[in-house]
Design a protein that fits this description.
About 35% of the residues lie in helices and about 15% in strands. It is an alpha/beta fold and about 240 residues long. Helix 4 (about 80-95) crosses helix 6 (about 125-135). The protein is built from eight helices and six strands, in the order ααβααβααβαββαβ. Helix 8 (about 200-210) links the parallel strand 5 (about 185-195) and strand 6.
């Protein structure tokens, strides 16, 4: 039985049996996990631009360039639940190519009070809940808080570092409910939508490792923002699909 066409693809508005048509999905630059050994921190063009003192692994679906950036914009600023589900699906499909161990817990990056009031949702939490449901991983949202609402994307790299240092804190109980004892080894993944400098997730990973020194910490993100004049899109780099 043939599937009925939706009104249009979210991105190109052509008739499509899926929310994102096959042509638009094929245009998305996604990282080939087999070529960078399932950890983008092993790839110099990214590790040189991303702060990663406190976490050991970085898993990203693709680059923050069109059409993926357009899909993320629909989720964040047009409140499109369909877009968020499609983003989650893309990430899950890519992650299922991995051979490494699965995290025990997903921890979405917290959103500030003012921004949450404006959007009425935390996009990182929405993504974490979708991914966690599909992969069978619990999600805990009340592990950390954002104490200020200054947007990181409006700041330069040094200002981002200073802002992140004062913006985040663990909640009183953190992830105590998932850690049976101080020496317990637990694998967690901090979930964010877009990584630019890595300063936010590194700060959060630092807070976690200070309280729970035996954690294995990963960062999962949908997209990485390439720095100016980046060569990431060059075919010779061999990291795209």
């Amino acid at each position: 039985m043939k599937r009925a066409l939706n009104v249009s693809c979210l991105l190109c508005y052509q008739a499509s049996p899926t929310p994102v048509c096959q042509w638009c999905e094929d245009d998305i630059f996604s990282f080939d996990t087999r070529k960078y050994k399932e950890n983008l921190l092993s790839f110099g063009l990214i590790s040189r631009h991303v702060r990663h003192c406190r976490y050991q692994r970085l898993c990203v679906y693709g680059l923050y360039t069109p059409p993926l950036s357009s899909l993320i914009h629909l989720m964040k600023f047009r409140h499109s639940l369909t877009a968020s589900q499609e983003i989650g699906r893309l990430f899950v499909d890519k992650w299922q190519q991995h051979t490494g161990p699965k995290p025990d817990l997903l921890l979405p990056v917290p959103l500030g009070t003012r921004r949450f009031a404006q959007r009425q949702f935390n996009q990182s939490a929405v993504l974490a809940l979708y991914i966690g449901r599909k992969l069978g991983i619990p999600v805990y949202q009340h592990w950390a808080i954002r104490q200020t609402d200054t947007a990181q994307h409006l700041l330069d790299k040094q200002a981002r570092y200073v802002n992140a240092k004062h913006s985040y804190a663990l909640t009183k109980h953190g992830i105590d409910g998932y850690v049976s004892e101080p020496s317990a080894v637990l694998r967690v993944a901090i979930v964010d939508d877009v990584i630019t400098t890595g300063i936010t997730v590194d700060r959060l990973a630092g807070l976690l490792s200070a309280r729970y020194p035996h954690l294995n910490i990963e960062v999962w993100a949908v997209a990485f923002t390439p720095p100016p004049k980046s060569h990431l899109l060059n075919a010779e780099n061999g990291i795209g699909k």
